[in-house]
Amino acid sequence: MQQEELFKELVSHCKEYGFIYPSSEIYDGLGGIYDYGPMGAELKSNIREYWWKAMVQLHENIVGIDSAIFMHPKIWKASGHVDAFNDPLIDNKDSKKRYRADQLIEGEIDRLEAKIEKEVEKARKRFENFDEALFRSTNPRVLEWAKRAEDISKRLANAMKANDMAAVKALIDELEIADPESGSRNWTEVRQFNLMFSTQLSNIAGEEGKLYLRPETAQGIFVNFLNVLKTSRQKVPFGIAQVGKAFRNEIVARQFIFRMREFEQMEMQFFVRPGTEMEWYEYWKARRMAWHQAVTPAAKLRFKDHDNLAHYANAAVDVQYEFPFGFKELEGIHSRTDFDLGSHQALSGRKLQYFDPETNEHYVPYVVETSVGLDRMFLAILSTGYTEETVPDAQGEDSSRVVLRIPPALAPVKCAVLPLVRNKEELVGKAREIFDRLKFHFMCQYDEKDAIGRRYRRQDAVGTPYCITIDFQTLQDDTVTIRERDSMQQERIPVARVVDIVREKTDMVRLLERL
Prior knowledge:
There is one protein chain. β14 and β15 form a beta hairpin. Among the domains are: 38-85 and 195-382, BirA Bifunctional Protein, domain 2 (2-Layer Sandwich); 394-512, Anticodon-binding domain (Rossmann fold), CATH 3.40.50. It is globular. 40% of the residues lie in helices and 25% in strands. It contains 18 helices and 23 strands. A 7-stranded mixed sheet has the order 3-9-10-16-13-12-11, sandwiched between helices.
């Protein structure tokens, strides 16, 4: 199955099994906004917990906060968002469709890279003992496409850095980029579009009462730097972590929950002594990649350095994941220098400095940031886990199943309790007894509807790692069958050991110990 078709199946699966719903669906929906269903809310909560424990619980020098969504409007002036938080917008005059100009150009780069990968795969099948590195460095077509992609990327980065929208438009014209839907090349000029949502404070009209929905959670950390420093008794280097909603008026919200107008971020700002920021930058690159690799195959992850650094950064890299629509940003790691604290210090008139007892000096700390999108992480976990496969049924015949191979610690439901049949009171009673015992320890489901095979398939489809089946032998010797999701292997275990076995196999500690 093609990746595009597989992604459509995944999106459909998310709605059918209660992971994600289109928001306001009975009113025909709201573009770029989604609601999380029963299974999605649990999975999202587990990913959030995994990040929080790995970031805060495992580090003595990192503490957490939860800042407000509404903040003083001067904060966004100091941060640069009022003047510079823009995306390049372009409209097609024929289709009336609106696009981000930089993403249209990046699409051309992606196409060139896809051609390179296709050429490499053809060569791999054609030659024994294939040397990929040698092929990439010597094949004329591959070299030509790679040079072209690099040239386009550099020109785009330079144009964006110089805020030269005419150069961006010239690049679109030169590449003969067409509207993806209509094929038209009849474009408007490129213009900047500010992404912040604004509202009014109480009954105060005009600029004085204007508030913004925060476009990122980081500024809530920076303006609380002094409060946290004083109350937590931390010393540089130390970090402040936060999970929270952010809002961006995206020109084009697309690719399901990958790019939304309301989303959730998991961010940590790490305050360091000036001059040591690059050491910590490398440290957090390694730590964050290890966090991802504990739940995601390493082959689907890579680092991608930024070609165009933000105004606040002296180094930046993305952790990219190979979604069904290609490698895209999952997490950003940035060396933000002292831009944020310095800007807030200048505009507020409050000193945001740290006295370092080791050097006996005051300074504005530098910051290394890690920022991962919770919704994107959710999509990456589902994209990795979603599998359609053929397996033998109870009679030994081939049948198909959809299974979500979600890491057990993150799975929405840890185990399902299933009586073999529903019309035997003694089996149902015993199953209920076991379920009532298990529900105190982890999220469980009780299911007695349909044949046992169908119930197994339902649990596979939502990623439940273990199913506990109560049958007639249970009534004789107080044992049950535990079925493992991925292998479908079954084992007989005593009822008294069910809690310990499921806990041991699904405990998040097993993930955290790998870090």
